[in-house]
Hints:
With about 140 residues, the chain is α+β, with helices and mostly antiparallel strands. About 30% of the residues lie in helices and about 35% in strands. It contains 3 helices and 7 strands; from the N terminus they run αββαβββββα. It has a 7-stranded antiparallel beta sheet with strand order 2-1-4-5-6-7-3. The longest helix has 18 residues, at about 5-20. About 25% of the residues are buried.
Amino acid sequence: MKAGAISLLTTLVLAMAPISAGAKNVSLRYTRRLPRVDKVELQKVRPAEIGVGSIESVNIVEGKQAEVIATLWRTQNFRSRSAECHQPAYAVKFYAHGKLLIYASLCWDCDNIDFIEPTLNASQGFNGSSRKGQALLALLRRTFP
């Protein structure tokens, strides 16, 4: 193989690594590199044995306030490892131009985010006890008193 072809192949493999690594390395485009959003749907959920059982309440946030929530999401302290349990209290959907970008449930018991849409078959750890993690939890608690 020529050097250029090897370099291109290496670049492609490295670019795909976060996707193929599964639950340990969720792609940055769903976390820190989430695109600008114009609508966020916040959900108070009742957990099932694992995951979301039912949606108890919904609150839609649009415009600048939606982007404020997305900014808080992007600045979370995401971890590559996450727990196996998942008893979410809240879920969030991020939209841009009417298109769903992410639907994820969050669990502060195990500091875990489960991506429902797109189907990644992966979860992402986050530091729920950090200042940013607690700020996100406080926002959700204020939304659903």
